[in-house]
Write a structure and sequence with these properties.
single chain; 144 residues; alpha/beta; 5 helices; 17% strand
Length: 144
Amino acid sequence: MSLNALTCQAELQKYDLVPRKYHGQVFTVDENVILELIQAIKSVYQPGTKVVEIGAGLGYITEKLAEHFDDIDALEIDEKMCSILNKKFIQQKNVRILSQDILTYPLPQKDYILVGNIPFHASGKLYRRFMSDESHKPYGMVFI
C-alpha cells in the first residue's frame, strides 16, 4: 500500500478517528519527507542510542524508524491511537509503544535522541524541558 493522504484518510475512517487539533494531530504522509527525516536521524545517530518518537500517530514514521533503528520508544498521547499502534507493531521487538505525553516521559537511562513531527504549540515546552530543565539531555533532536 502506497502512503498518501487518501490512505491516511481511509485509515482514519476505518478506526473512526478524527484528528484532534488540541493534540496537534497532523499526519506525515509524504514518503519522501519521512525518508528525509530518517536520513537526518542517521546523520547524527550513534549506535546504542534509544530513539524517542514524539507523537507516533498512525505509525507512518514509526514504521520507517523500525526498519533502521534497534531501540525505539514511540510515544502517543491519544489512547485510541495507542491501541491501533499496539496492534500494528505487536511483532516489532525493537518498538515499544507508550501512551505517554513527552512532557512526563521518564528519561531513558542511556543516550537518546528525540524525533518526530511535533506540533508547533508544543515545541516551547518541549525545548524548555529537554534543553533547560533536564540534566540528562538528548544528544540530538530531529523534527519535521
